[in-house]
Design brief:
The protein is of the alpha+beta class. Helix content is 19%, strand content 28%.
Length: 179
């Protein structure tokens, strides 16, 4: 009987002392500078709505039954032929601002809930998207995705063209040092 109590107490202590994290990344997180350097395409875009095609699940971490359609407002890095792009995600009614100081070194709160990526996008809101190619343009997608750096700020909501995160990223792309 005492042995069973000791085992139960040990299991209870271990459960409390070792929190389980739903997402983990092997090695250190990429710095904001490395994310900007590594991104093949960086765009300032606005959410137009849900795309006409279902989610293509371009990565297991970010799979979604829907795709979000964006209007490209400005290309900061790379080349993109067109004025719209789409990738897996869902349109929501709530804002999801990053709560950390610029330069962001961690994903916005929506990406801290389980799968390492923020997949919610507010209708009509603007985002700074650090994108990488995901192969072919499957299921009506654009061939681009922000889901390439787990826990990284690759798809942050911004407050328009004067946003501090947008300004910081633009300076990095232009090769200008921080003020």
């Amino acid at each position: 009987m005492a042995s069973r109590s000791i085992r139960a107490a040990t299991v209870g202590i271990l459960a409390i002392g070792a929190p389980a994290f739903p997402c983990s990344v092997a090695g250190p997180l990429r710095t904001p500078q490395v994310l900007v350097e590594r991104a093949a395409l960086v765009v300032h875009a606005r959410v137009e709505g849900v795309a006409d095609v279902a989610g293509a699940s371009e990565s297991a971490e970010a799979e979604s039954p829907t795709r979000v359609r964006f209007r490209v407002l400005r290309i900061l890095k790379g080349s993109f032929d067109g004025d719209e792009l789409s990738f897996d995600g869902q349109v929501v009614a709530e804002d999801d601002w990053n709560d950390r100081p610029v330069p962001y070194d961690f994903v916005r709160p929506g990406g801290r809930r389980g799968n390492c990526f923020a997949r919610d996008y507010k209708q009509g809101a603007e985002y700074l998207l650090l994108l990488d190619e995901v192969g072919s343009e499957t299921a009506g997608g654009s061939g681009w995705s922000p889901y390439w750096a787990a826990l990284g700020p690759t798809n942050e909501q911004i407050a328009g063209s004067g946003d501090p995160w947008l300004a910081w990223v633009a300076r990095q792309i232009e090769g200008k040092p921080d003020p």
